[in-house]
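hi! just following up on the protien thing from before. the input was this:
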Amino acid sequence: MLTPAELTVLGLIVEQPRHGYDLEQVIEERGIRQWTDIAFSSIYYVLAKLEKRGLVKRVGHPEDRRSLLIELTKKGRSDHGTLRGTFNEHAVNLMGCVPAAERANVERALLHLRAALTTCLGQCGPDDCTKC
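and the predicted 3d structure came back as:
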């Protein structure tokens, strides 16, 4: 099983291949540290663990020969559905922290947010969601 930090980093790479520094920027911009324990210094450690499991690999950057990007492997792609289920299990466990009387409201809000994000990503793409 992957840790929440590993699932988070893998999810960011599922969106698009990234450089380790790009991962740090996205984590900071999205406020990911507010809900998962991933420090700047641990990003490369997490990437190494994902690489060791065969889920990601380092590839040359198409625009800069000196730089490497991290992308999914075939195994990473095939395992993504299973891993997404694991992530959903973590989300369900987190929902246990929400008082029962409020749970339905939180679930509705999350479904609304998911629909809005799906629409936005469909219209703009992950790099240009500021226009939605």
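The chain has five helices and two strands.
Residues 100-124 form the longest helix (25 residues).
cheers
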